[in-house]
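Consider the following input, taken from an annotated entry for Protein Ves (Pandoraea iniqua).
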Amino acid sequence: MKVQVLGPADFQKMPWKNGLGVTTELAVARRPGEDGFDWRISTATVATAGPFSVFAGIDRSLAIVRGGSLTLNVEGRDDVTLTTQTSPYAFGGELAVSSMPTLETAGVPIDDFNVMTRRSEWQHTLVQHRLTGDVVTWALPAQADSVAFLYCAEGEGGVSVAFANGEAVNVPAGHALRLDQIDAPACQLRAEGPSSDVFLTCVTRLHG
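Applying the prediction step yields:
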């Protein structure tokens, strides 16, 4: 299994597709074409109301990292308000979406976490956990070409990730863990301090 701990020097900032904000790209599988990726994992800041970029044929999941709440107006659906306590919200990238942030602190934008996969070839899952004293088992995908990705958003001391072979790595706050060529069914997560907030993503290629 290929294990990589990634930090800010490995991430790439880029403007939103619609030019109205900035995304920090944490991991990506690039491809030629208008959107330029098969899948992408990223964070972004939202300070003002406005529309989302359109990504036809892309499945998206969005979660709040910190900074307040974000109310989404999604084409054909009831409005939904996301906070750090709500589950990630899934929607199609071709839908017309606009957002209205409510900031916890004036002038400090909301940070969100976003996963996008090309619907015809890939699928993804996204869950968020607040780790405290208990060990949490993270089930990993079985397919060899899958990618598992952990982002530690908050937490003094970061997160310890233990593998079945006895090895372990620490992922500090603001860093990520990427697993490729996965050959284990699960790993164990534990906060190194009082608590840690993590986002867990698995990206899997569709077959057949």
